[in-house]
Amino acid sequence: xxxxxxLLMKRKDLPMLERAKKDAIKEFHAIKTGxxxxxxxxxQYSKTMSVLAAGIEAIQVFVSEVDEAINSIxxxxxxxxxxxxxxxxxxxxxxxxxxxxTLSHVHRIHKKGLTALAHMSPIxxx
Length: 126
What we know:
By secondary structure, the chain is mostly helical. It has one domain (about 1-120): Up-down Bundle (Butyryl-CoA Dehydrogenase, subunit A, domain 3), CATH 1.20.140. It has six helices and no strands. It has helices at about 1-35, 40-70, 75-85, 90-100, 105-120, 120-125. The mean pLDDT is about 80.
């Protein structure tokens, strides 16, 4: 269950990482443009762009798999709590407010959701 929670926490931070990679690509293009009058290693540029694109694609696949796993949970209450925490990135207090439950009840639902996700094959293969 601890590994499942760690994976979900990574899901929460992935949009920020994806934006950072996209910003790095933009910055890299700007540097390339600024270096137009200088010697430029096109092969290295191409390799770097491929690595960045592959990283972004891997992030998108991971996000999709985690979202799919959360959405496959049958219990709507559990789905709502996990989505609020890991998809929307809400803090626990906001998850409780959003769901209309007490903080302790949200934690019980969360534990139930982690147990459910730990037994699902897609989340365990991520």
